[in-house]
Structure formats: C-alpha cells, structure tokens
Write a structure and sequence with these properties.
The chain is of the alpha+beta class. The chain has helices at residues 45-58, 85-92; strands at residues 3-6, 9-17, 24-29, 32-36, 65-69, 75-81. It has a single domain (3-92), classed as 2-Layer Sandwich (Conserved Hypothetical Protein Mth637, Chain: A).
C-alpha cells in the first residue's frame, strides 16, 4: 500500500530516483510512490531534498517529514506527521491506491 494511516500521521512508501533532470512525482511504482529528485544520493542530500519536496507537496513543514527506513536505498518508508490519510490522498491527487 502506497499510503497508510498511523497514529502520528500517515506513512508513505516511496521509490526514489536521485539525480533526475527535475523534481517530480511520476505516479505509483509497484506499491510505492515514485519520485524523481535532482539531488545526488551522497551525504544525505537526496533524503534532505525528499523531505523538502514532500513538505512542499503536502503542505507541511519539512521537519514533519521523517524517513523511517531506507536512508541509503531507493525504497523508503516516510512518516508525514500531522497529516491524515485522506488529506494525503487528496494532496497527492492519486486516488486509485
């Protein structure tokens, strides 16, 4: 499941492609939200860029975005604090997951 509810907010499964030509959401990749970012995957830059990108996209501060697992891989589990499941679905505009 791409997004699920959590007592702290909602949890997103993310498939990240660093070093892309632009920052964008491509849709669903398997059971994860596929995201491209321009940041390189070194020294935590892609993770930091992901926090800022998701914060802007979902209307939360970057500090509300926490990577729970997958810090060094493409597949990540991300907690969005204070954002409900329905709100996340609406803001991502992906209703078929």
């Amino acid at each position: 499941m791409v997004v699920r509810e959590d007592p702290r907010g909602c949890i997103l499964a993310v498939w990240l492609q660093p070093r892309a030509s632009k920052n964008e959401v491509l849709g669903v990749h398997g059971e994860a939200l596929r995201i491209r970012l321009t940041a390189p995957p070194v020294h935590g830059r892609a993770n930091k860029a992901l926090s800022f990108f998701l914060g802007e996209l979902l209307g939360v501060v970057p500090a509300a975005v926490e990577i729970l697992s997958g810090r060094t891989g493409r597949r990540k589990t991300v907690l969005i604090r204070g954002l409900g499941l329905q709100e996340a679905r609406e803001r991502l505009k992906l209703t078929d997951w």
